[in-house]
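Late entry, evening session. Most of the bench is empty. Finally got around to the prediction I had been postponing all week. Sequence below, unchanged from the version circulated by S.P.
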Amino acid sequence: MTGFLLGLMALGYSGLVLFWMAHSLKKLMRPLRAAIGAFALSCIVHSVTLLMLEPEHVPTAFALWGVPHLLLLPALLWSAWKQEKGGQA
């Protein structure tokens, strides 16, 4: 049960960070490019933090940010695509 709650918290945190960052970047660039930029920036920052961990903790940390990011990427891209499509009409 604790693992499920931890995974749910990681999914919620990743969603909050990715969508907030994409929203902030939308002020500088198109929505789809902002979504990809937010995903890339988040992956870079989290990858650098993995380098600072002890080797036995890397798989767990990767699972807590990698899996939620990959689960949220389609929703992030779909949302950005819908915003671009709506802006052109």
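Two things to note before I forget:
Residues 33 and 83 are 12 Å apart (CA to CA).
The chain has a mean pLDDT of 91.
Will write this up properly tomorrow.
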